[in-house]
Structures are given as structure tokens and as C-alpha cells.
Amino acid sequence: MTTPTDLYPTRGTAEVSVPRKDPVVWGSPDAPGPIPATGLQSYERDGFLAVDQLISDDEVTVCRRELERLVADPEIRADERSIVEPQSKEIRSVFEVHKLSPVFAALVRDERVVGRARQILGSDVYVHQSRINVKPGFGAGGFYWHSDFETWHAEDGLPNMRTVSVSIALTENLDTNGGLMIMPGSHRTFLGCAGATPKDNYKKSLQMQDAGTPSDEALTAMAGDYGIKLFTGKAGSATWFDCNAMHGSGDNITPFPRSNVFIVFNSVENTAVEPFAAPIRRPEFIGARDFTPVI
Ligand code: 6CS
Ligand code: FE
């Protein structure tokens, strides 16, 4: 199979910005599903869609108990799918939770979740990545500014921008405890970053990203053009965002954890090929190679 053309060059010697070549909403505007047409329009415009209550309080309780069970399990802590905070060594993230947990496996298949992904991506979808982010507080680290697609293209080999993420809050996302920030509209420009991908980059990047990080100049220009929106919401709220939206989150020094479950749906028409800008593939628990559609 021939490698598709690299529409989004990145991790070369210089930072380069190119216009997005892909649609944002791949489905038809009147496609059936949980998102109303007005919601699809604002997702197209902004690169995100906030849902005040995606899952009920009772469902949040079940998910939060499941997160706590996973985090407390010594076998999970020893598993390579667990990433710890560099300072405190507390668990920062656990990947592939849709395989580790029947609770999160059911969430992935829930029509309120996968139905929205199919509507946006206009096709069947599979899970490219899932994780819980614990962000326990008292100094838990944030995630510096980045485009997820830049990494998923460079390191996981996703050819086109036909991927959507949902972050479902499992604790209240306050304006103080390191909530998600997105630059509205930034998804329409691809910023190719400077600097080659080191081998085994993921072992560091999941704690603190380096390769694929925009320059201060680029971030200053983008923040000036688009602004920055901070997402707050009660537990059970969710933010759907385009794979190329420039986003990040700050450290959490409050006592209030900012935990979420994060699921990445990719179109079955956009399956991963070889990395476009990395020496080797990342492990499958980060970038899936099982393209079985979610049913
Ligand atoms: O590298 C990745 O795939 C992950 N890193 C971040 C900071 N966001 C996207 C994804 O979870
Ligand atoms: Fe991200």
C-alpha cells in the first residue's frame, strides 16, 4: 500500500503554518444524531462543542469510582499504560481505559458518545486512544499548548483531520483547577512544528511534551487572532473538540482534582498508516492499530 501524501508537514527544521485541507464536520449538516444542526455549525466554526450534561450524576459516580479503582490497583500502576506525575509520582493518566474497564467500554459505545462522533466524522468510527486524566491537585502538571493532530499525524500516522476527542468531566472543572483551554477557530490552520521526533518520544511527551510544541511567536500570534476559551463545567459535562484545535491546560495547585475521561474517535476512512514524522510507531495503547468500528 502506498503511503498517502503528507498534507501536513511537521517536525522539520522550521515551523510552518498551512491552511487546513480537510473538512471539520464530515457528516452532512442534517445527519441524524444527538447533535442539532446548530451544534454542528458552531463546532465547524469554533472547533469545539460544549455539552452541559453528557452523562448523569449517577453515571459520573460510577465512572469516578471506576477511575479510583483503576488508580488504586497496583497492577494498573505497574502497567506501561499508566503515566505518573514527574514530581509526586501519583498517577497522571491511564491509557486504553476502554479495554481495561467495562465501565469505560460501555461509555464508548453509548449513543450519546459514539453517536456524536459518527455525526461529526460522517462515518463509522474506532477508538484511536482513550485515557483517564486524574490531575489530582496540589501541583499536578498541566498539558502545554499543542494540536493533538500534529502528534497523531507525526507519530501515529493519521493522514487526515478526521478525528474528534471528547473530554468528559468526572470532577467539577473550575476556573482554578487546571481546566481545558482551547483557542477558538485555531483548528483551521495547521502549525507544523520545528524539531525532529526523538526515538521513544512518548516516554517523555506524555508527562511533558517537547517535540511538536509551538513556538512562543506562533502561540502569541494565534492567541491574538483567536483568543483563549477556558472550559468550566460540572462533573458530567463534556467538551468535544477537533483534533487540530490548539489547546492545553494549566497545572492544578488547588485541592480540587480535575479528573476526566478522554476518548479519541477516528474515522474508519482515516486509519493510521506509518508515522509521517517519527522514526517508529508509538505503542498501540496510545495509537490504536485495531480499526474495528465501535458498534
Ligand atoms: O500524545 C498524545 O496522544 C496525547 N497527548 C496530549 C497532551 N493530548 C492528546 C493525547 O492524549
Ligand atoms: Fe491534547
Task: Jot down its keywords.
single chain, 295 residues, alpha+beta, Jelly Rolls, seven-stranded antiparallel beta sheet, four-stranded antiparallel beta sheet, 9 helices, 13 strands, binds ligand 6CS, binds fe (iii) ion
Helix content percent band: 25-40%
Total of domains: 1
Mean pLDDT across every amino acid position: 95
Return the CATH topology.
Jelly Rolls
Largest sheet: 7 strands, antiparallel
CATH class: Mainly Beta
CATH superfamily: q2cbj1_9rhob like domain
Q: Quote the beta fraction.
A: 15-25%
Q: Give the H and E element order.
A: EHEHHEEHHHEEHEEEHHEEEE
Overall strand count: 13
Description:
The protein is an alpha+beta fold. The chain has one domain (16-23, 39-129, 136-267): Jelly Rolls, CATH 2.60.120.620. Helix content is 26%, strand content 21%. It contains nine helices and 13 strands. The strands form three sheets. A seven-stranded antiparallel sheet has the order 2-11-7-13-5-4-3. The chain has a four-stranded antiparallel sheet with strand order 6-12-8-10. Strands 1-9 form a two-stranded antiparallel ribbon. Strand 3 (82-84) and strand 4 form a beta hairpin. The two termini are 27 Å apart. Fe (iii) ion binds at residues 143, 146, 148, 247. Fe (iii) ion (FE) is lined by residues 143, 146, 148, 247.
Give me a quick take on this structure.
This protein has 295 residues and is an alpha+beta fold.
Structural topology:
Elements: E1 16-19, H1 37-46, E2 48-51, H2 57-72, H3 74-78, E3 82-84, E4 91-95, H4 97-100, H5 102-109, H6 111-121, E5 125-133, E6 143-147, H7 148-154, E7 163-169, E8 180-182, E9 189-192, H8 202-205, H9 216-226, E10 229-230, E11 238-242, E12 246-249, E13 260-267
Antiparallel strand pairs: 1-9, 2-11, 3-4, 4-5, 5-13, 6-12, 7-11, 7-13, 8-10, 8-12
This protein binds ligand 6CS and fe (iii) ion.
